[in-house]
Each structure stands twice: as C-alpha cells, then as structure tokens.
Amino acid sequence: MNLSKENLNNIHFDLLSRFNSYCWISGGCILDTLDGKTPRDIDIYFGSQREQEKAVSKAKVQGAKIIQQYPLGTKIEWDGVEVDLTFCGEDPEKVFDKYDYTILCIAIDKNGKFFHHPDFFEHYAERKLYYTGIAQSKGASHFSNKAKRLNKYIKKGYSIDEENLEFWLELLISEQKKPKKQKNKQSNSV
User: Fold this and answer.
1) Which CATH number fits domain 5-185: 3.30.40.10, 3.60.140.10, 3.30.460.10, 3.40.50.2000?
2) Which of 47, 78, 105, 118 is the most exposed place for a label (fewest CB within 10 A)?
3) What is d(CA 28, CA 15) in angstroms, rounded to the nearest whole number?
C-alpha cells in the first residue's frame, strides 16, 4: 500500500527525515488519516531506547517543547504538532505486539515501506475491532487506558463482536486480579 501525498502530509511524514536513525510512524494517526480525519497526535517509534533519547534531544534543539515524559517515551509539541517519540520494539512488527487491535497494526517507516497486520485490510474494511490478544496490561492505569481506547474506537464508528469483547474483558479481569494477588503474597510473607 502507498499512502497518498495528502495522507503523508496529514501524518507529518516529513518529521521522520529529521532523525538520523531508523524510525517509523505507526498506529492510530495512520488510521485517522485513512478515515479522512486529522490525527490528534503523531506516534514516531525508534528501534532502541538510545535512539529515542537522541531523537528527543534533537527535537528539543530544533525548538520542540516537552509536554510529558512517560516510561516508554516523550510527548512533545513540535512545529504546532503533538508528537510521541517512543521506543517499545526494534521494528514496526515488534511494536504491533503492543497494540490491542489489528486495525492499529499499521506503520510506515522513514524509507516509505508500509507494514501491516495480515488481517488489517479485511478488518479495516469491516470497521471491526479484533483484539490481538497479544498486548498485556500492567496495573489499573493500563486497564483504564484500554477501556478508554475501546470506547474511543467505538465512538469513531468501529464495532466489536461478542467473541472479541468477551476475550478482551476476560483478559482485563484476569490482569486486574494479578496485582492484588502479588500484594497479598507480599503481605503474607511479612
């Protein structure tokens, strides 16, 4: 698949050329663009934590302002655009393992190569959310984020069938219980 020049402009593809290292744009910003919407922010990924840190430094030198730092990256405002500079896998396909839904498993690297989940086009055409079952939560804040993300995509016109919703809920419930069990083990051992 090739994105149109208009789509590349909409995802601020030119930002990738500002970095010396290999990087790519992935996820919801591409999906928004394909849906004819302007993305709220642009997610740029790097193949290592070191490359991500160098990218943040370079962006700051070029006038970017840090909005927020979080464990896997940094949100910046750069030339009027909100950008997340993130590391969570060495290449686009490894980052897909962190996504909840197959429709988010899309990326374009700085060389213009397009990556996608094998079922992306079918699921995107159906406007359905298929839970990957790969992405794992860590704690209550991730549970909340996953719920917000599901709600966001439903509001954008995507649907989820009963089987995927059940799978998603079962996984979240089991993940929500894990921290409590660990706390109980710690308190019993003291």
Assistant:
1) 3.30.460.10
2) 118
3) 17
Q: Is the pLDDT of residue 98 over 90?
A: no
The encoded tokens of residue 8 equal 């590349």
CA 5 – CA 26 distance, rounded (Å): 17
Residues 39-83: tens digit of each pLDDT: 999 999 999 999 999 999 999 999 999 999 998 899 999 999 999
- Of 8-17, 117-126, 159-168, the range with the lowest mean pLDDT is 159-168
Domain spans, the chain: 5-185
Residues 103 and 158: beta-carbon distance below 8 Å = yes
User: Could you tell me if residue 112 is left (phi over 0), alpha (psi between -120 and 50 degrees) or otherwise beta?
Assistant: left
Question: What's the pTM value of the predicted model, to 2 decimals?
Answer: 0.84
Mean pLDDT across the chain: 87
What's the rounded Cα separation, in Å, for the pair 7 and 139? 36
